[in-house]
Amino acid sequence: MIQRLASSEFFVLGLCALLLAGLGPFTPGLLSAQNLVNVLAAMLPLLLVAAGQTVVLIGGGIDLSVTAIIALASVAGAKIMTLSGGWMAAHPAAVPVAVGAMLLAGFLTGLANGIAIAWLRMSAFIVTLTSLMAVSGLTVWFTDSKNIADLPPGFFSLGQRLPPALGMAAGALALTHLMLTRSIYGRWIHAVGHNAATARVSGVPVPLITALSYTISGLSAGAAAILLTGRLETGSPVLGQTMMLDIIGAAVIGGTSLFGGRGNVLWTVSGVLFLTLLDNALNLRGLSHFVIMMIKGVVILLAAGLDVVRRRGQEE
Amino acid sequence: MKRTALILLDHAVILLFAGVLLTFGFLAPGFLSWASLGNLLIQSSPTAVLAAGMTFVLMVAGVDLSVGAVMALAAAVAGKMMLGGFSMPLALAAMLFMGPACGLVNGLLVTRLHIAAFIATLGTLWLGRGGALWITETRAMNLPDSFLHLGSSRLLGIPLPGIICAAVLAAGNVLLEQTPFGRQLRATGHSAVAAAKAGINVRRLVTAAYVICGFCAALAGILVLGQLGAVSPKFGLNKEFAAIAAAVLGGTSLFGGRGAVFPGSLLGAALIQAVENGLVAINANPYLYPVVTSAVIFVAVLLDTLRQRLRAAATRRIFPETEAKAFSASAAA
Question: Which residues contact B157 (CB under 8 A, 6 or more apart)?
Fold first, then answer.
């Protein structure tokens, strides 16, 4: 019974409903329309970067560097368009160039990760760990650990007004989902994640597929940085630093396997929804930062335990 | 030609270490003095101890991301006890109890609930850090001076942290290289299925590896307390990454079955510490420390990867990965 429930595609969405039904009556404001819009807006950046992570996880890898990429992209974009001494301050093309630079920063870092992992055949954990350290170090050094304020108001709409942000996230998600389910790339990345040696023998260009997955992850981190920077109205060298657990947690709660070969962007959407709702509800209840940390830790463990049950259910 | 390259790559970390020492010795006079080198070893002792424990977990193809949080939790409990009037031996005993207890939790999550080690220990990382913040009420806690005295005391002229570190490394080395337990760990890391078929109690073995890792985390916490004399909210933050990096620099594989406590862990920890101390000695921008450190780790791991591929090419089969495994298996035997 538990196994059948757990292996259902809608299991995590059910958990979300349970959370709302269980905490809603006791948490004033949780179910208000304004709050639900807030939740939706807060979800979007996490959604983007978790979708990228899902691609990497399906390929049997892991990308620990995304939080550093978010900070790098945020700072790079802000440095270009800030009105106080930016490289293109008050130039009409400043905002589009900055947005392009943010995506480019993510793309290039992801590509560097991908090259080291796919062609130099280094361990993904170590490569993305060192790039996490190096990229965040460089970002902090570049900014002297200061925020970059005075961004042009034209940029804020990207993070603050819901329609553009929602459109961007939905577009990226739809694209990633189609790529994973309908294209040859999707089949290949699943094959690589299942068994890289078999995939290579079957003619799959394994290094290329692997490198692409890290590039996608980097690009999605750059996109998340656009939304986060727009919301904060500042470029921050420590942006996203605490998101790591949420990113990997959302993918795993959704049902993507850490061992490769199994995953889905839509599952990740429900994982993100669940974690964001949980965070929101706990915050509304006025719990302190460390209690939320502990509860999230337990929830991740429970979700991972359920994932094991789910996997067994599928094997039978 | 190929043989020279292999011999060089076999000693890549030592060569890199020597290169780092010589470079900074050249740039900053006094860096290579005996006092400075002794200091380097003492400063790297917490990371070396952590890496020694991590080696056991990596050996069975696991990973423990919670060691930094365990350090913080144990230190927070000890600090609270000391400030509450308990004696220092009692506080130390509590720390040494908490470490293995946390390790046991990790081990049971991995072996009984079959949760991936990465996620299980990521969860306990957040539990531990949250718990430590809860206990310390997110404030820094200054401990009585007795901890600092412990850190700077000497036995037969040798600093106590050095003795603790040497004892842990020696014990870990004997355990891994000279006992059936060590051989079984290695076998399990190569193939848990094969090990189970050979009659090894894989669950108990893997759990034991996490318990050892937790114990080492608590010891490392004590060593850091001896250096700092205070528990801050950032106590042990990101130490898990330093420990994994040190173990990997020391030649331990993340995929299980290959590794050594000594000299690997010490060498890896000392290399990381040498880079940091050297940067301090030449007055580099502190923000650049992680950049240089990660570059050195990257180069070391890249060289190790190259070495394995060259070794693999020498055995001439079709798939490099299986060859690397086969080679390290024959090397371990």
Answer: none
Check B321 against A197: CB less than 8 A apart: yes
* Beta-strand relationship, B141-142 and B230-231: antiparallel
Q: Provide the token pair at A72.
A: 């790098």
Q: Do A129 and B245 touch (CB under 8 A)?
A: yes
Show the tokens assigned to B170. Answer: 């020696």
ipTM here: 0.86
At the topology level, CATH places domain B43-311 in: ABC transporter involved in vitamin B12 uptake, BtuC (1.10.3470)
Residue in chain A closest to B301 (alpha carbons) equals A122
Question: In A, which residues are within 8 Å of B127 by CB distance?
Answer: 293-294, 297-298, 301
Q: What is the pLDDT of residue B332?
A: 46
- Tokens 């008050």 -> residue: A90
Cβ within 8 Å, pair A300-B119:
yes
- How high is the pLDDT of residue A55? 96
Alpha carbon distance B233, B236 (integer Å): 9
Which residues in chain A touch residue B130, judged by CB atoms under 8 angstroms apart? Answer: 290-294, 297
How far A108 CA lies from chain B's nearest CA (Å)?
A: 17
Q: Which residues of A touch B63 (CB under 8 A)?
A: 125
- Nearest-CA distance A30 → chain B (Å): 24
Residue B26 forms contact with A (CB below 8 Å): no
Condensed to tens digits (0 to 9), the pLDDT of residues A123-135 reads 999 999 999 999 9
pLDDT at A204 over 80: yes
Sign of the C-alpha dihedral, residues A246, A247, A248, A249?
positive
Q: What is the pLDDT of residues B211-234, one digit of tens each?
A: 999 999 999 999 999 888 888 888
Write down the pTM of the prediction: 0.88
Instruction: Name which of B291, B294, B19, B40 is nearest B159 in CA terms.
Output: B40
Rounded average pLDDT per 10-residue block, chain B, 333 residues: 78 88 89 87 93 94 94 93 88 94 96 90 93 88 81 79 92 94 93 91 95 96 90 88 90 85 88 91 89 90 84 65 51 45
Q: Which amino acid is at B108?
A: L
How far B61 CA lies from chain A's nearest CA (Å)? Answer: 13
**CATH architecture designation of domain A2-315:** Orthogonal Bundle (1.10)
Which residues of chain B make contact with A132, given a CB cutoff of 8 A? 294
CA-nearest residue to B245 within chain A is A126
What are the boundaries of each domain within chain A?
A: 2-315
- Burial of residue A118 (number of CB atoms within 10 Å: 0-12, 13-18, 19+): buried
More confident residue, B78 or A240: B78
What residues of A are in contact with residue B294 (Cβ under 8 Å)?
A: 129-134, 137
On the CB side of A224, CA atoms within 13 Å amount to 32
For chain B, domain boundaries: 43-311
A84-112 per-position pLDDT tens digit: 777 887 788 888 899 999 999 999 999 99
Please tell me what DSSP assigns to residue B159: E
> Which three-class secondary structure state does DSSP give residue B222?
helix
Determine the Cα angle at A300 with ends A296 and A302, to 5°: 115
Q: How close, in Å, is residue B288 to chain A by CA atoms?
A: 6
